[in-house]
Every structure is written in structure tokens, then in C-alpha cells.
Fold these 4 entries.
Entry 1:
Amino acid sequence: MEENEVDFLIEGPQGNYICDRCVEGCYSLLKEYKEDEEKPLPKELEFLPTPQRIKEILDQYV
């Protein structure tokens, strides 16, 4: 992408640049990721036994 194809460029600490379009794209991806993190667990995953409980059950057989 050429400099004249973007509205502005943001300079990083080491002289690297990122354009406003890339910043918007990254923001959208991060926002989507954050929303996915906040979703509740599906019902079938809510009642998973704890690791300690799994060990107790396995200890009965080993």
C-alpha cells in the first residue's frame, strides 16, 4: 500500500510505520477476540469436573 492511499501513518518507536487502515483492522480483530473471551461456556462445559476430581476418579482404577 502506498503512502498516498492512506489517511495517515503512525510512527512506531523504532521508525516503523502502520497505516490507519491497519490500525482499524487490528482493533476489529482485538475487539472480536475480546468478545469471544467474554462469552459464557456452553452448557455442556459448565459441569466439567475439576482436575482434582478427575484425579480422584482415576486413582480408583490405577
Entry 2:
Amino acid sequence: STTDPNLCLIPYEQDIGLSMIDAMTCDLESSGRWYLDNHLNYKQRVSEAAYKLEQLQPDVLFCNIPFVSIEAAALVGIPSVAMCSLNWADIFHGYFVEHETQFDRTVMTEAYEQMLNAYSKADIFLRPTPSMDMASLRNTQEIGPIVSEGTWRDLRDIVFTATGCRFHKFVL
């Protein structure tokens, strides 16, 4: 939500990024199947997303890198701004193009190129610091960190109260 009465935020999810087994483990089979299905049905997905965008009539698509939505916005003439410290195309490439998997590498390379093409249709791709290099994209612009300024807190007393232990070494 926003406190600006002149801004209307419309949440809309378009992709999975990567299916995860847990916080540190990618489900490659599930992710690969999703991307393969997305690739094989890409025109239909883009058409459906374009239709939904036309119904919403936004002034701009400001998004956290859903490549289908970016392609759809371009299709119906809606400007788009992508912003993220990563892009799914390069992550996908690392998992499904650079390394041998159960999926056909030629088809997965086509899917990768499809994602890059979609990302290239964003008017600009903002990269907050820190971010991936994204050398595969030509429409990126580095921006500084995007954070709320906080207050430094020494958590040692809280940890001592909770555990009774004064620590010098600990594992995160």
C-alpha cells in the first residue's frame, strides 16, 4: 500500500522466478517444467497479460521484473519500468543453459533468449545497489541503494537476556 492518494498500486503476479524446496534449494525439475511450459505457451501468456493490462489501463507498468508483463506492456503500448537487483533470464541461464539438465538445452536457450528479448522491451531496467552485473541487458541503469534509513542497534544485550550467554563467536 501507499500513503500517496495520487498513486494506485495494483498487485499482479506473473511468474514464479524459481520454485524452491526450501530457502536455499531450488527445485530444478519444477522450475524447469514451468519455464518450458511458459516458453511453449509464451504467445498465449503474453496475449492474456496484454488483455489484462488493457483492462487496467495503467499509465505505466512499474514492476519487479516479470518478463511476460513487460512484453505484454510493450505489445499494448504501455511504458514499463523494471526494477530489481537481479533478472530471471541470467539466473535461468545459470541453471538451465550453462549446466546439463534433464531439459533440452536448445529449447532452454530459446527460452532464455525470449526472456532477454522481453526485458529489452522495458523502457528502463533500474538496478539498485548491490545488484547482478546484467551485462546481457542494454537498458539497465544503476541506481543507489533503496532503503529506509534505520537506527543502529547493538543486539548483544538482547541476545544475552534471551540466552544468558555473553558471546564472542557465534554462527549465523
Entry 3:
Amino acid sequence: MLTASGLWFYVVKGGPVMIPILALSVVALTIVLAKVWELWRFRSRLDKLTRKLHLFMQEGNLSAAMHLCREDTTPLHRLFESALVHRGQERADLTRRLERAGGDVVADLESYMPALATVIGVEPMLGFLGTIVGLIKAFMAWERMGEQITINMLAGGIYEAMITTAAGLIVAIPYYLIYNHFVSRIGVLARQTEERTEEFVDVLTVTNFREPARHAL
């Protein structure tokens, strides 16, 4: 089992390139934790919002529905608010308007994903860079020492150079799998949002509200 001291040994042996590799791994971990929380919160918010809106639709309470959508300024709340505000438009026009608002929801879901993708792409390249630099140093030492260099000395220099490649891949591979999971999850949430919006519009078109529209707005 790799101990903390053993891990630190490899970090030191990897050279200066290990610093950005480790720094970016911390950045990626921060993004992943934030994204897990964000996606969970979005799903919870979607369920809660649509459930309450359907209750208000059953009651014909437009003011309460509008107030609920305006409690928060997230793209999700603005999406359903837009449906309420423009409920009198033709279905095709309303659909186009909601598609634009839905684009904001998807963009919000995809926040930080480009940064995570950048880290995943850069990590292996940093590893290869560290390996190339290490190999250059090893062969420069061979050139200086000439016949005095031993196989053990040369092998030691080469294995040290390979540490950064291993480190870059060790960081990139798990985050690549997590990234793909996030992409899949975002796609599912986007489809669920679209379905919930369509269901809401269907209910909205047949709802008889108790108060005039001007009072709700």
C-alpha cells in the first residue's frame, strides 16, 4: 500500500511539473464536488417547483404561481415564469419563447463543465511534458558522465521522468469518467425539464384562473 511518505517521495521525484499537475487535480476535485451539489439541487428544485405549480394550477391561483416563480432568479424559475407571463400567446410562439429560456437552463446546468474538460485535457499533456524534460535531463547527464554512467543511474533518471506521465494519467482518467457521467446526467435533467415544461403548458392552457391576469402581474 502506498503511504503518505511514499506518495510524497514520488511527488518530489517527479520534479517541478508535479506542482501544476497536483494544483489542477485540486481544481478538478473542487469542480466535481460543486457540480454534484449543483445537479442534486437542480433536480430537487425542479421537483419542488413543478409540484407546487401544479397545485396552484388546480386551485386557479395565478398570483401564487407567479410569486413562486419570482422567489428565485434561477434560469429554471425564469423558464416557468415566462410560461405564465406569455400564456396568452399562440402555442407555437410560446414554445419558441420557452425554447430560448430553456437554453439558459441548459447553459446553467453546463456551468464549469468546460473548465473540467480543460483540466482533463491538460493533465496528460503536463505529464508528457514532465517526462520529456526528465528524459532530456537524463540524457544530458549521460553525455556529461560518458562511460562513467551506469545502467542503474540511467534507469533511475528515466523512471523519475515517467512519474509525471503516470501522475497526469492517474488524475485525468477518473475525472474523464466523472465528466462523461455529468454529461449524461445533464442530458437527463435537460430532457426532464423539457417534459415538465410541456406538461405545465398543457395544464396552463386549460386552467381557469380565479383572478384577472393584471392582478397577478
Entry 4:
Amino acid sequence: MPEGGQARAVGRGEGVSGGYRFLPHTADIRFEAWGGSREECLAQACRALVASFAEIPASAPARTASAGIDGGDEQLLLSVLDEIIYRLDVGGTLPREIDVRPTPTGIDLDMSEVDTDRVRFTGATPKAVSLHGFSFTRDDRGWRCSVTVDV
């Protein structure tokens, strides 16, 4: 969780506009994200994951990367977060900008990536997404997810 350990919201509120907020957790990172569409909620979850442990300068050089991910709703959420953790561990990169587009079988994830040597780490890096308390649902206000990340 970012410094201070407080729950905080990023976004315009919990309606159609997307955003995320960190929730108190004893040892790991916990957040909720929301969006008017499934893809916006997925993008907000990715932003929350990165913001939970890193600050990426807007001036840092970036390159474009993409990934096609197939699956049902919960599998897509798990897979996009795992993709970010994988790219951090194996490629030494983090996404500064994230765009999620629907495909017939899942999503395309387009990212503007920055090398981690240009990133300021503000917390413990994630190891894995926990299935405990994991959810991804749609309601009358849009899409919402709850995620716990092992650090």
C-alpha cells in the first residue's frame, strides 16, 4: 500500500467513471477498482496494482508493448494482473499507460512500458495475486473488482 497506509480513492467516485482505492490489509496489498465497462475496470485494476508499490515519472522513456489475453471475466482480471507481475519480474518493466480493448475471446492489453531503473519504488513488489477475496462483478453502476496481492 502507498505510504501512510490509508485507504484512498483515485478517480471521480464509484460510478461510471473509473477509479480505484486501497483498503487496509495486515500484510498484503488490497484494493478495489471500478469502471463503467469491463475493460475500464481491468485497466483501473492494473493502475492500482502498479500504484501500490511504484511511481513512474511522466518523463521516463517508454516503449509500446501488448498482450492478447483470452478467458472469462475473472480469468481476464487474474491474467492481466499476472501479466504485469511477470513483466516486472522477467522483463524489468512496468506499464505507465494502459489501454484494454475487447476481443471476441477476451481482451487486448496495450501498454506504454518503462524500465524499472527509471521507477521509484514506494513499497514491496507484488509476488502473486491471491484468490482469497478475489471478485470481478457487474452491477447497475458498471464493473467492480476486489483484489488481494501477496507481497
